[in-house]
Amino acid sequence: MPTTTAPTPTQRRIRWRYLAGLGVLLAIVLAVLRLTPHASLAESITSSRAVYARNGELLRLTLAPDEQFRLWVPLERIAPSLVDAVLLYEDRRFYVHPGVNPAALLRSAWSTASGGRRQGGSTLSMQLARRLYAIDSRSYSGKLAQMAAALWLEARHSKREILEAYLNTAPYGGNIEGVQAASLIYFRKNAAQLSLPEALTLAVIPQNPVKRIAERGRNAELQQARQRLWALWAERDTQAREHAPDAVLALSAQSRGSLPFIAPHATDMLLAQEPGTPEIRSTLDLRMQATLERVMAQYLRGHAGVGINNASALLLDASTMEVRALIGSADWHNNSIAGQVNGTQAKRSPGSTLKPFIYALALDQGLLHPKTMLKDAPTAFGPYTPENFDHRFAGPLTAQDALIRSRNIPAVAVAAKLGKPNLYDLMRLAGVRKLQSEAHYGLALVLGGGEVSSEELASLYATLANGGLVQPLRYTQRARQEPSAEPLRLLSEEASFITLDMLRHTPRPDSALPARPAVAWKTGTSWGFRDAWTAGVFGRHVLVVWVGNFDGSSNPALVGVDAAAPLFLRMVDALRAERLDPGEVATRQPANLRQVEVCAATGGLPDALCPVRSNTWFIAGKSPIQVSQLHRTVWVDESSGKVVCGPQPGARQQVVEQWGSDMQRLFRQAGLPRADMSDAACEPSSTAAENAPLISSPLRGVRHQIRTSKPEPLVLRAEAAAGSQSIYWFADDSLVGRTAPGEGITWMPPLAETGQRHVLRAIDDQGRAESREVIVDVLP
């Protein structure tokens, strides 16, 4: 019998050196493999995309490009209980083996061969390798390939990376892969928020997903697997036994068919704006969104009989510029109304919703204050002759009344007096897109001649709420964290404050009183009854509501105050009733803003004769400072009631209103005629010079174009002070004719050459005169 001799010390040293060398070589190879640049496991796996509300609720979960629900999350965003349960159930020696566990393979083979309960021998690394490389491991060659792939993964990636990849690709039934997608679909929560019973449930599904998700997870196969895992868990964690009753309860799980599809227009937009982003955290408030959708659906059901069947709405928190709710159409699924169109992005005629910005600019430019008297009367602005919506004229009224009553003529008249910036400049600076040239719109821009979107209109009204500063809207929480440019000031704090205060006096259509708590709101109706709008500010929010048809079809019911305002106010009321509006942000009254007393009849500073006075907002250094000169003391003959010059027997003093010819005519049209109590014949020459006629047509600074093929004369018109009966017109020292104050007369200038300049003069019967230069361009 041969004998074996023990290795000599030299042989042992050589053997250990050989093994050490192999170890060092293997370590070098592994280090090279690990450090060689290679794609991460996450990059090789396509992902679904999820959109969340501001508080983390799921709004939408899309399919990955391979038609799987799979949403990659880092390991630190997975509940530790789920990670531990998976390792305990699937691979307890995960952090020890090199990717293959020979003992587990042998145990599995022996159990299968002896007819016992089938046990899996695959490690997490092997299971991940099979899924990543699509290996069929049912044959011996396939199993060897799976083992080799697992070793390759372990050589290239850390244990943490492999565990993270497994948890993000494990099968959870049907086309659901990964713990995040499974958690969202089955439990409507993120993987980080799973309870222990939910974590135990998800941990056992991948071993047999087909059977264990049957009946939405309420089946014996799943319950038995959970109980086995719970027994293992309780052995390891004795303190967890107190949760045993909850851990073995059958859980009520959701399904793919009931995945949320909330705010589809907003989620569509966000998915398109942020391509490739797997998780989008929006600024939408789920409760606010649901409230507005419910109110809109109820409102449209009640008005279907008059053909109102579509609307959109956008709710904005002006303090942060974050969009809280967005409804692009009444029903995303309704093709008959083109429901998938996002109405908040559509460019439409805004009607009168831009008027507040005309008055805000005029406040800043010192043209008026809220009690300044304006004229609502037929007026031509060159070739443009606007009309009011009701085809009537209200006569004299304050700027505040003109705004809240939405009178067109005063708004256009104010816009015509604006310097720079005007409404067009303000809209361009505010970011309104696709504007034509300023000349294309002219003064018609005031009444909705341009087009804006609900988003752009909300931004403009947020400018008022933010003291005149314009900032971009935010739809995602990431946008809030990004550095933003310095806000651009479009209006002063004072003008913004006053404009909102004026709008808060607008009475509700269902009440003669303004809304309480106060709402600053304005309606708009486009030409042809195609769009009905209401936009406004309440609390810290801006709400814009549009009612109409995406195909632009007309409907007489589409009037802002009748169709959009009730929906707007119902939404405001609902948000307040459900305590979703936290109220206004604490603000201070601007430093340069004062309350001053003015004469109610004129809006000027009251003189000693003004009988009725009121208060108005006044911007120091800007608002017009004029002493009211309407009231005069005249001597009246007691027997005849006629004005006489100076004191005389049988005469008494009387305070009267002395309106000019234009205002006298407005009062007559309004059914409130004023008696002519003028003492113009008694006025000194200095006073008479101050009351010269006021030429209202042609306009100052306008080049007038006349075509020789179809010449049209210019209309000359002037207003006169009280007591004037006639106005004589001269063109270049030639008499044109005589008119009554406020009446028009035509004049055809010579058409010899283009660019001719002419001087027009209007002289009243008291000898007071005004002149104006006009330029005439002759066109073929």
Describe this structure in words.
The chain contains 24 helices and 27 strands. With 780 residues, the chain is an alpha+beta fold. A hairpin with a 4-residue loop joins strand 6 and strand 7 (322-327). Helix 14 crosses helix 16. The N and C termini lie far apart (131 Å).
Give a brief outline of the structure.
Helix content is 33%, strand content 18%.
Rg, alpha carbons: 40 Å
Number of strands: 27
Number of helices: 24
Mean pLDDT: 84
Task: Outline the biggest β-sheet.
Answer: 5 strands, antiparallel
Q: Strand content of the residues, in percent?
A: 15-25%
Helicity range = 25-40%
What sort of overall outline do the alpha carbons produce when their principal axes are compared? Answer: elongated
Strand order of the largest sheet: 7-6-14-13-12
Q: Indicate the structural class.
A: alpha+beta
Distance between the termini: 131 Å
List unreliable stretches of 5+ residues. 685-689
SSE map:
Blueprint lengths: L8 H27 L14 E3 L5 E4 L7 E2 L9 H11 L11 H12 L10 H9 L7 H17 L2 H11 L6 E2 L1 H9 L8 H9 L4 H4 L7 H17 L7 H4 L16 H10 L5 E3 L4 H17 L8 E7 L4 E6 L27 H10 L8 E4 L18 E4 H6 L3 H10 L5 H7 L8 H4 L12 H12 L3 E2 L6 H5 L6 E2 L3 H11 L16 E6 L5 E8 L2 E8 L11 H18 L15 E7 L13 E7 L11 E7 L5 E2 L6 E7 L3 H9 L15 H6 L3 E4 L5 E5 L6 E6 L7 E5 L2 E6 L4 E4 L8 E9 L4 E11 L1
Parallel strand pairs: 1-5, 3-4, 21-27
Antiparallel strand pairs: 1-2, 6-7, 6-14, 8-9, 10-11, 12-13, 13-14, 15-16, 17-18, 17-19, 20-22, 22-25, 23-24, 23-26, 26-27
Helix pairs in contact: 2-8, 4-5, 4-6, 8-10, 13-22, 14-16, 14-21
